[in-house]
Amino acid sequence: MISLLCVYVGVGFLSKVSDTSGYWVAGQGIGKFGNGAAIASDWMSAASFMGVAGLLYLKGWFGLGYIIGWTGGYVLLLCLIAAQLRRFGKYTIPEFLGDRFDCHVVRLLAASVTVIIAITYAAAQFKGIGLICGWIFGMSYTASVFFAAGVVTAYMLISGMAGVTRNQQIQYVVLISAFMIPLWVLIQKAGGAGILPQLEYGPILSGLMEGKVAGGPLSADEALELRRTFLPWGTGNFYQFIALVFTLMVGTAGLPHIMIRFYTVKNEDIARKSVLWGLVFIGLLYWSSPVYAVLGKFWNPTGGPTVADVIILSAPERANLGIAYIGYLASGAMAAGLSTVAGLLMAGASAIAHDWYATVLRPECTDKQALMVGRIFTAVLCVIVIVIALNPPALIAQIVAMAFAIAGNTIFPAVVLGIWYSRSNKYGALAGMVWGFGMTLLAMAGWILKIDFFGPEGWIPATSSALIVCPIAFLLNILVSNIMHDKVTEETADRGDSILRKLHNLPAPLPEAGAAPDTDAPRRV
């Protein structure tokens, strides 16, 4: 693990950049395979690497909602967003929204939401990283969080997105091999053939349903509880499942640190193909997560949340695989957490430095000044995340789900309508984003205060609020945009029209009948 951490910092030094394009979008020179691997690494955080197996361990069948929702979100990205954002071709999502709606208020609100998403999501990653370091090095949780923060901040401050992308490609190879290799030994120790674990754990699961585990038969009550967990609707009902899946789908498609990856590639064709390759790479891990959950139940059927968050580490330990397997697996988990934290902090810092400082507060600043502000706020965000991570409020995947709810209720509706609905304007975008952001924060506060309406079994759960909030955000955007249509200036309308034509690769408009050709004054769509 120490050697890999040294590699990450070394790659940062070798990828040192001195211009804004290199720092924010890696010079827009990443290919489809490299960007696909970086997307997968960016995506497969500690929540995916450790949290999904833990949720399946605790919640059984209901935990599949996380896999379905997170994977389905990439279909939305592929169909609705990826190619269009690459054609826009700048640096950040707040920049796209601010330019599309010709409004600094929209830009600043989107940047603020991006920062909040980055902080919330990264706090969950540091919880996973802290657990891993404590497991391997015997460090305290607090020391582990500070140690990991030092590593990721070091290579980010030096290299920006160029180093982050290269490190994410390396980290993907580490994390996917670390995740999958031990499965062959684990499945053999549990009685399988060890050829393809993802297709061999069915008999073990069937045995669990009958109360057969490694330590001997379970009691009648324990067997009944285990069976209930692994059957549909044993935990959670149909509404909660659909709400969770929907929230995670739109949240995935609305995450700024995922969207920003489409700015790093050469053209829109590579943007689309990199999503497909990202799905392939992500699918390898999600195909294997249920195996860990079932094997974890086989060796430790009565473990609680403490066991769940480190299930991928405790399962091989229970199987007596030895320190080499556990260490390599922990290195993969560390790589997963670090790669996602790097992408999140980069998205958050770019929102502050590029969209707040360089675009709104000091548009006359130089590249050097913007880079300095970006590096300063990268460190500031890291400190804020550490403070939150030292006292995490929930399980890793639950914290992440709240970040997804914020993205799905605010960024996703504004971006989709900004791309596909020509009448959407700044008034509608602000109405939808304020509604989505306010309701998500209300749901999170209600969840913390243990109000039933916002709890796990309520109508608007904090982790699954988008099923109700997101469609209303779309509706508000459309209604307010139409009501306020006459308030949009001709100049703003023309700028929006020009961006829409660029997004959809449309030709310049023809001059009106009887008028002289004027390519500098495009007619509105």
Q: What distinguishing features does this structure have?
A:
about 525 residues; mainly alpha; Sodium/glucose cotransporter; about 75% helix; about 0% strand; globular; disordered C terminus
Describe the SSE topology.
Blueprint: H1 2-14, H2 20-25, H3 32-43, H4 46-59, H5 64-88, H6 93-100, H7 104-137, H8 141-159, H9 161-189, H10 202-209, H11 220-230, H12 238-253, H13 256-259, H14 268-299, H15 305-308, H16 311-318, H17 323-361, H18 367-389, H19 396-420, H20 426-448, H21 466-483, H22 490-503
Helix pairs in contact: 1-8, 1-9, 3-9, 3-14, 4-7, 4-14, 4-17, 5-12, 5-14, 6-7, 7-8, 7-17, 7-18, 7-19, 7-20, 8-9, 8-17, 8-18, 9-14, 9-17, 12-19, 12-21, 14-16, 16-17, 17-18, 19-20, 19-21, 20-21
Q: What can you see in these coordinates?
A:
The protein has 525 residues and is an all-alpha fold. It contains 22 helices and no strands. The N and C termini lie far apart (55 Å). It has one domain (1-242, 252-392): Sodium/glucose cotransporter, CATH 1.20.1730. The protein is 73% helix and 0% strand.
- Provide the CATH architecture: Up-down Bundle
Beta strand %: under 5%
CATH class: Mainly Alpha
**Count of discrete domains:** 1
The biggest beta sheet is recorded as: none
Overall pLDDT: 79
Instruction: Quote the distance from N terminus to C terminus.
Output: 55 Å
Query: Helix and strand string, N-terminal first?
Result: HHHHHHHHHHHHHHHHHHHHHH
Radius of gyration computed on alpha carbons: 23 Å
- Shape field: globular
Structural class: mainly alpha
Classified in CATH, the superfamily is: Sodium/glucose cotransporter
CATH topology annotation: Sodium/glucose cotransporter
The total of beta strands comes to 0
